[in-house]
TrEMBL record:
InterPro entries according to UniProt: NTF2-like_dom_sf, SnoaL-like
Domain of life: Bacteria
Ranges of residues in domain SnoaL-like: 6-67
Protein's name in the database: SnoaL-like domain-containing protein
Length: 177
């Protein structure tokens, strides 16, 4: 049986690796995605209804623009069946056309169908999204590709992070101060 941790990991592998078929292991067929974008540096439709619509927005269209995508959940995975799970996330990626580096963060609010433990609702809040010049690629990718995937502690993510990502890390560390 699928667990919430399995569903979340399948979603991340699908999105980061441009593998829309994996969303069948993450979402119910009639799942709903809601986006709360609180930065002007990236845009998504506010609501997507159905697994195919989610695949179109978060995997297919996303992969047309971005590559080298690494997303980590900044939490321990849920250890048992649950109806909901909330965690911060961190992403780093590059723009295909400009080679600019993007680093962002926000929060996932997952809701799971009781019988299948697949996600039937997901709210993604994007709190911050930095755009960095292409010359930051090496340092950012070296750092993010070394993080535990897909579950990583905030402390581990902040350790050895390049200085150029400090605005995103400052948001993530908001509760630690």
């Amino acid at each position: 049986m699928t667990t919430p941790a399995d569903a979340i990991a399948a979603y991340l592998r699908a999105k980061d690796g441009n593998r829309p078929h994996l969303l069948a292991q993450a979402f119910t067929e009639d799942a709903t995605l809601t986006m709360d974008v609180r930065t002007g540096n990236i845009a998504f439709p506010p609501v997507s209804a159905g697994r195919e619509a989610i695949a179109e927005v978060l995997v297919r269209r996303f992969a047309q623009t971005y590559e080298n995508v690494y997303t980590v959940c900044l939490a321990s995975p849920p250890q048992r069946p649950t109806d909901s799970f909330r965690c911060d996330w961190l992403v780093a990626m590059t723009e295909k056309d400009s080679r600019a580096v993007r680093v962002g963060c926000g929060r996932y609010d997952w809701h799971f169908a009781p019988a299948s433990q697949l996600a039937d609702r997901l709210l993604i809040t994007i709190e911050a999204m930095q755009s960095l010049p292409a010359q930051e690629l090496g340092g950012v990718m070296h750092w993010v590709s070394g993080l535990a995937y897909p579950w990583c502690s905030l402390q581990a993510a902040m350790q050895d992070a390049p200085a150029c990502v400090s605005p995103v890390l400052a948001y993530l560390g908001r509760e630690a101060v």
